[in-house]
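Exercise 7.
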Amino acid sequence: MAKKRQTKKSQKNTKKKDLFVMIGSIALTVVLVVTMILNAPIIDYRTIKVWQPLVQKEGTLQKPVNTDASALNLKEDTDDADPKDDGLDLDQIVEGQYTVLFMGMDESGKLADVNWIFQFDIFAGTMNVLQIPRDCYMPAYANTSTNKFNSIYGTGQDETVTPIQRAVNAIQESFGLVIDCYVKLSCTDIANIVDSIGGIPIDLPEEIMYEADKVLKSGKQTLNGQQAEWFVRFRREYDEGDIGRVKAQRIFLAAAMQKLLDMSQTELMSAMQKIYKNEWIATDLSLEQISMLADFAAKRLTMDGVNVYMVPGEGIMYEGQAVYSIHKTEAIDLINEYFRPYQNEMYYDESTIVELVDESNYIDTYSDTEENLGDIHNGDTEDGKQNIYSNGN
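Solution. The predicted structure, written as tokens, is:
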């Protein structure tokens, strides 16, 4: 307890800058993009309207036709939170919250290897983050040859909508989450972004051999763009496979945050401009909108108010494929408790999740994956860094 009090005290001294950084600390692919972009309060967003959304070929997301309280299954208004006036001047599907999907693509540009959702609870001044493992079994949406979530974007079943909309529809119908906007980038652009900020200092617990000639030694070092890409995509030798990679990405978040905290506002501004100039991301947010969100959230968000979760489930072999079978009841319970602050509970039958393992045969490995970003940043996580290299069962 004493250690946590000291941590909180030290955080207050750099509270403003910590807030800016933490807003964008969602996924390792996105932390390097969004954190720099969301530092936009260092400039007046009224002067940057010329920075248009980088929608490229993705387009904008379809908004629900009916957004009344009944259609969105909204909770009744409460005295301490009026969903009609949350103070954020952005187009929100559900007033009081703002939800963003981040996708990090592989080298083909068709497979989504990193899938994170972050949701601002505007009234509470908190943010919850949901990691969706790439191998999630989703037969109603995915390519029928793999049935994995990561295939939905590039080769999913619904060809009547854009690839990004396909992924959003799967998330909304499976997890009951309404998505306001998206940010997407490729693995090659991760390297570009890391190089643009001078690399990421990190302390690796063990050596990683991405390929025979691509080795990251253990210990303290600064990863360049290419090395950062190796680290965030590596999973071969983790006992937990892709879940091991998901855990490693959380470690990288802490290193990236510290790097960004050490950067000056001028350096952050330069990086932000370079990202937009080179179109290293695709997003339906303009820089003005991102700045408005950051400016608002920076007044409320703290490191201790950001929690990360992973969709509950377990890895199994099914029809020759290694897939991640979602624990449906646990996933719905998690969503209802942490990701529907202003909507009524979603029921089991309202979700399109298909699970391959009966509840009576669950392996309880990935039922409780909550971590606080403040604890991750300070190395106070329960599992510790070493567990990404071995199954903690």
